[in-house]
Amino acid sequence: MEKITITLAAALLTSTLSSASEVLFYDSFDQQPDWTSDDYLNDRALPQGWFSARAQEEWSPATGFPNSQPNAQILAANAERAVNGVGKSYVMYRESEGVPKQWNSDSILALFLPELNTQWDSSKQYDPTSGYDEVYLQFDITFSNDMIARYYDHSVGQGKIARIFHFDGEPGKLYSYFEGKQNPSLVWDMSGGHQYYGFRNLLAFLPRQVGRDYDAVLNPPHQMHMGGMSASYFSTIKGMMPDGSDSILPNLLLNDGTPIGPNRGELDQIFGDEKTWVTMGLYVKMNSAPGVHDGVFMQWLNDQRIMHLDQIAWVDDGRNMVKWNVIAIGGNDAYNHYPAEDKDEHWFAIDNVLVATHLPDVWQPSATFTLEAPSDFTVEQVQ
What we know:
By secondary structure, the chain is mostly beta strands. About 5% of the residues lie in helices and about 35% in strands. Strands 1, 2, 3, 5, 6, 8, 14, 15, 16, 19 and 20 form an eleven-stranded antiparallel β-sheet that branches. Strands 4, 7, 9, 10, 11, 12, 13, 17 and 18 form a nine-stranded antiparallel β-sheet that branches. Strand 15 (about 295-300) and strand 16 form a beta hairpin. The relative contact order is 0.24.
């Protein structure tokens, strides 16, 4: 299997730990041919190296609306929406259809980690025992100024951004989320608005259980409901750094070193405007045996660890142990503020997707950091 070695720039570290981490996959999108979800809908074309896509769009050139946008795009014409304003990124448009609680705008790209550089065959049975006990997913992300304006005017609704999960491999069931074929699952979502509780760090911990108790996490730092946690980027991050100190997120709207706040985090405080990119890291480790609450989840925003949970039963009593074998970026959105006739659209983007089979050395508990985001990589392909 081909692997890629990613070396973080040495200037980012203030420790003497090795800064190299062997990973399974890396895509800056810069070398990808131009692609949109219309290409997928028309002839099932996928971006190079990706296993599967899922697209749902009400208005785009493919659906008879030439002045509207495909939901997912990797285009040279979008260079200003890539890191440093050059190259390409994965741009996703969110549509508002005006139907309360309806989920729209599928824009998923997925990888099946045990079989990289292959495309999903929906008639094939994939090995349900394959995968990894640990997975680390990292990417850069930005939110458009149009989306920020909607956040302040009403809200961004809810939207899925990234997932790490186990796929049982049954033919045609990769996206059958309600049939128990994709669990356990970790989902990072976005939600919130200025008029409500600020921008929320919405996390879903969906265990592999006999029923649907969703009680995988012991001693969570915030109240949970049905496996979901609407955490704060301001208050829930207290005590989350490896040394037990509080995480501190700088206000990227002011960009003067002051922290977000005073009582919560706003979208543009946390992530800046559409020219600002932050690095998000998500790490999962499977529990040691069914029902044992020793599984792990960690989350980083730039150099700050903002979530650390180490009492998770990803696999519960009565279910077989499995491994993590799928990551996905993008998703669908419950955003319906405007009626369908308005054909409202706004975008966010992801760049520099990295997937590792273990926690990189730079994130180990004994490492310390500068305040610069770990986004500078040297990439070397290893046969």
